[in-house]
Amino acid sequence: MTEHLFDDRRITAMGLFTEAFTGLTARVSGQLATHGLSLVEFEVLIRLARSPRSQLRMTDLAAQTQLTTSGITRVVDRLERTGLVRREACPTDRRSSFAVLTDAGRTRMEEVLPGHLELIEHWFTGRLMPDQLSQLLDSLRVVRDAVRPEATSGAARNASECETR
């Protein structure tokens, strides 16, 4: 009976997902390091670049990256010191502030992305047929929305609104 427990497809699915994720993360981290970025710094920059007006409230950015508010503050501090991000106060709520991608941040991302996309294509998306990739994206969104519903927090909100939580 225990043999069936160890042969469970759910364990296989989780194991394969973990192995693929850690393998891809190692390759991506190496590529980002050649540009002087950590994985979390890249995640912050790409989320800002893909957001309306290239900005997000700090609380939304923390939720999207699954960092604590102090963790996202430290990352944004580092990126601000290097000129890739700046903070802007919310004009209607002194308690809120935005992280905003600077022109230098956009330029850095434009330098990083060609190699990053090439790596993704070589080790991940290029290994799947178009219909497999579409199914995978749909499946990952279902799982992401269940386990991290805050992952898209603030993405569609008008960036000029300064709501508080």
TrEMBL record:
InterPro entries recorded: HTH_MarR-typ (IPR000835), MarR/SlyA-like (IPR039422), WH-like_DNA-bd_sf (IPR036388), WH_DNA-bd_sf (IPR036390)
A Pfam short name: MarR_2
Domain HTH marR-type intervals: 7-145
Protein name: MarR family transcriptional regulator
